[in-house]
Amino acid sequence: MSNSVRPTSSPLVVVGSANADIYVEIDRIPREGETVAARTGQTLAGGKGANQAACGARLSHPTYFIGQIAKSANVPVILDVGGMEGPIPDDLFKCITILSPNETELARLTGMPTNTTDQVIVAATKWLEMGVKQVLVKRGEEGSVLVTTGAPPIIHPSILAPMVLDTTGAGDTFTAAFSVALLEKKLPLDCLKFAAAAASLCVRVKGAIPSMPDRSAVLQLLQDKII
User: Fold this and answer.
1) Nearest by Cα to 159 from 93, 107, 217
2) Residue 63 phi/psi, 5° resolution?
3) Which of 86, 117, 200, 207 would disulfide-bridge 159, Cβ 3.0–4.6 Å?
């Protein structure tokens, strides 16, 4: 892997939200009806769309952030389902190249258990049967699973951080880094490795966008870990 971006790489286009994250630190969890004073407080840039766009840019990939896109856009579409409460509309499945939930979101949206790797694969396969080509499941410290039509699942471990300060934005970082590697025509396993390294660096820093790693840091961690 090198620091250079392949000249033939397609740009990463992120469609999503941008907002301000209010970050506070408290000494303990409040009891019901109780108000607890925060020791510190910050307002940091965030939002699932803005997070992933910022991560793509910091990974030195040409990245664009927009608010909407035509339904007929003939491009690979990666849908991060974070924040979706209701079922995914059936007519949307045929437009999705990769569906990316975490294991909790996968369980909620499929109505199936996702406590084990085997259960995650079975639940993800349900979406393949509805027309999605790939399902990328983020499992936190348990790693990730990529389930693809017509191919065996790829199970990849996480790169554990020596200290976890804040998991905000870690899933967005993983999805964005995977997307960047995919657009750079890396093999699926290498995409998972790249995403795991980016997410590992993310959780070591407070905040969402402030924690997004740059490309050189990701490549250095991959070199150090050799996973």
Assistant:
1) 217
2) -130, 140
3) 200
**Whole-angstrom Cα distance, residue 100 to residue 98?**
6
What are the percentages of helix, strand and coil residues in the chain, rounded to 5? 35, 20, 45
| Residue 67 identity (one-letter amino acid) | G
- Cα angle vertex 60, ends 54, 66, to 5°? 40
CA dihedral 176, 146, 117, 138 (to 10 degrees): 10
The pTM score is 0.75
Residues with catalytic roles: 172
Digit-coded pLDDT (tens) for 39-97:
887 777 677 777 888 888 889 898 877 755 445 566 778 888 877 777 788 888 878 88
Non-local (6+) Cβ contacts of 100 within 8 A are 78, 79, 80, 81, 135, 136, 137, 138, 175, 178
Q: What's the mean pLDDT in 199-216?
A: 91
* pLDDT-above-90 percentage for the chain: 48
Closest CA to 134 of 119, 121, 147: 147
**Structure tokens, 205:** 């820093």
Strands 40-46 and 154-156: unpaired
User: For residue 219, which of 184, 200, 194, 186 has the smallest C-alpha distance?
Assistant: 194
Structure tokens belonging to residue 19: 């907002």
**Residue 5 — pLDDT band, cuts 50, 70, 90?**
very low
